[in-house]
Specification:
Number of helices: 11
Largest sheet: 8 strands, mixed
Radius of gyration: 34 Å
Distance between the termini: 85 Å
Number of strands: 10
Shape: rod-shaped
Structural class: alpha/beta
Order of helices and strands: HHHHEEHEHEEEHEHEHEHEH
Helix content: 40-55%
Strand content: 15-25%
Length: 311
Amino acid sequence: MHPENVKTHGALGGELPPLELLRSFEAAARRLSFTLAAGELHLTQSAVSRQIQQLEASLGVLLFERRHRSLVLTEAGGVMQRAVTDSLERLRDATARLRATSAPRQVAITSTPGFASFWLIPRLARFTGSHPQVDVRVSATLEVLDLESSRIDLAVRFVPIGRGIGTALFEESVIPLCSPQLAASLREPSDFSKLTLLTVDYPDHGEAPTVDWEPWLRVMGLDQLRMKSTLRFTLYTDAVAAAVAGQGVVIGRLPLLRDLVQAGRLVAPLGEGVASHRGYFIETSRRAAGNPDALEFAQWLREEAEAAQRG
C-alpha cells in the first residue's frame, strides 16, 4: 500500500484503531482463521474480514498473507499481534482488579420466617453497625433453598437434631405461651380446653394441628387435650402475633420467643419448657468459602447464640 492510498481510506494518524478492530485482529491472529475468529466473537466471517481490511487500511500495511484456505501473519502482523495481545491482557487484568475492588460486599442468608423475625432481625443491627460496608440479604422462607443455585452464602436450617448439617446454633424447647390477660384465667393444664389453639397449617404434610405441641403434651400427660377452637395460620409469625393480641394460646419456641417473654408480652402460665429434639444449624455454601464477610457473619451468629444462652 502507498501512503497516498492509506490517506484516502481514512488513516487514523496518531490515533489508536477502534477496540473492536483490535479484538477481531487478535482473535484472527491467534486462530489464523477469519471463520474461527468470527465464531469466537459471535460475528459473521465477512464482518471479521471487513474489520481486518479496515485495520490494515488504517495502518497502511498488510497484517495477513491470504493463502488458499489459510492465513499467515506478515512480519508487520507479528509485531501487531504481540502488541495487541499484551495490551488486551493488561486491560483485562486492570478491569478485573477494578471490578473486584468496586464490587459490593454482600452476605446472603436464608432462614425460616420465624427465625428471621424473632431472633435474627432484632440482633442484626449489631452486625451491620460494626460492618457498615457489608450488605446483608435475608431470604426468609419456608422453602428449603438450594444454596448454590440461589447464590446464597449461609442457611440457618430448622431440623431434627439428628439431621442437622453444619454448626449447631441452639436446640429448641417448647412451652405454651399466651398474653398476660389470658394467663390469668389458667390455673391448671386442663384449663387450656377453654381457649383457642393458635397453630400453623401444614397443608402439604398432613400433620395434626397440635404437631408442634406434642412434646409438651406428652410430658404433661395431656395427649388427649382438645381446645375450644382452632385458628390456623400459614406462618408461625402470624400465630405468635395472634397470641400477643390475646386471641389464644400458641406453642412457644424457645429461644426464638425469649425476647417477647422477657418483655412481658407473652407469658408461660404453666410448667417449664420441654425439649422438642429439633434445633437450628448453620449450613455454609461453597461460595461462602471465598467470601470472608460470610464467614465472619457465621461466626457472629455463633457468638450471638452463645451470648443468648448465657443470658
